[in-house]
Amino acid sequence: MKDYNLKMTIEAAITHFPQGSNAVKVYDETGGFAGYITMDALSAAVQQGELTRPISQFVIADLPIPNMLPNSISSSQFESFFQSEFCRLVFNSLYDGVYVTDGKGTTLFINKAYQRITGIKEEEVYGKHMGHLIEEGIISISASLEAILKKQPVTLIQKIRNERRIIVSSTPIMSAKGDVLYVLSSVRDITELIRLKHELDLQKLTFKHVADTSFLPEHSGFDNLVIGPSTRPLFKLADKVAKTDAKILLQGETGVGKSLIAKYIHSRSLRSNGTFMEINCGAIPEHLVEAELFGYEPGSFTGALKQGKKGIFEEANGGTLFLDEIADLPLHLQVKLLKAVEENRFMRVGGTETVQVDVRIITATHRNLKNLVNEGRFREDLYYRLNIVTFEVPPLRDRREEIMPLLEMYLNRYNTKYEEDKKITPECYEWLTNYGWPGNIRELANLVERLVVITFNTDIDVSDLPPFLQPAILKTETGTLKEETAKLERSLILEAIHQYGSTRSAAKSLGISQSAIVQKMKKYHIRVENESK
């Protein structure tokens, strides 16, 4: 056999390739071993018209399992090789699975890796014909039988009984007469390959979305709060004003995280050791708001506690008071709140003595307070007292770089809570990142918790999403572009109306005018009951 060196051309290598071999050794200029060149590689090069190229470009360091054996061999030679302790030691040390049959398709050997990959034990298949294994449902098809039939290497995807899929590459070992003596198969777990590709895709997707995103460390008490480019200036300002007692107004849509920002400011302030009290002004019956804010004396009204009760202003003494949805505070109570804000003192309901407190006030609303002032629905003097520093908290749709980290954060949280190990597919991540999130972070957290609880599979895919979130192609039969566009538009309007309850807010969330959404609602026969303008 002619010595093969790195400078030899493909044409010369083909001409002198030893008959019956799958691979030969290649040597460098000094005579040192450089690797192997296989007949498969040479054939591929010839098909590409690369006859004059040096074989150095096709040399490999190690041989795949099928190339470790010659194409033709006597039965006694193979049995002697196969039964050797060295052969079994080599096969059992491989990471890939190995499956060996005789020329009729009867199982002779499987290595430890095959048992690990498939869960099939040697005693279950040894001595059995591949056809019987198919009949018993252990495997779906046999690459070994295909290789015996075609007398050439065969690669196919095989499904085994535990629903895993494996890639099987079977190479027939031929006799000098051209008969198949044995079939040697290498096996790889395609399920594992898909999982690794899934993780790689996810890592790429994650990197794309979090490259500009930072997190507050866990010891900060904010459970890895996500801070992206859109909110970084906001938190920088929060750090600055936290050291003062300046009153702060947080404006932004429902669910954007105003309460979290208020708590963050409190944690960074000189009052961080004091109490943080929070009250939603719109969630309390109007006749009880004053008593909740300022407290009451014994016997002040029917149903009052005999000993009276402190209000939230007193409970927050020395700390921070967060008044959420301040725009919902009745006008007649805005006067009393103004006095408390200006002087840090007030009287309880039914009381005659002034109560002095030391409280830092932060307020929030999803409405435009300035517009309410112009409409006479909010006191101008109170507006300016509360609005020393204003934070405009952007909606989640304007903070898309934060969506994926938030999904991961809540997925980890609810996986832990419900003892699950759910994962979101890259396709689902991509879809959710492009969703408008009219309910913002609150909607996102709600959706993730729901998906963790109700999905049956480990992987959460687009098909697992609620109908209004799924692409139209998953929910409907194919129609014309005009029909499908109309269906999607109607679905988006319905969801926005359901989320916000008014045409004004829904239109704003969709980025269109109120008159435009009203026209479209008429077109799609959508009605809003008891709309609050």
From TrEMBL:
Keywords: Aromatic hydrocarbons catabolism, ATP-binding, DNA-binding, Nucleotide-binding, Transcription, Transcription regulation. SMART domains: AAA, PAS. GO terms for biological process: regulation of DNA-templated transcription. Residues 229-453 form the Sigma-54 factor interaction domain. Gene3D superfamilies: 1.10.8.60, Homeodomain-like, P-loop containing nucleotide triphosphate hydrolases, PAS domain. Residues 150-202 form the PAC domain. NCBIfam families: HTH_TypR, sensory_box. This is HTH-type transcriptional regulatory protein TyrR. It comes from Peribacillus saganii.
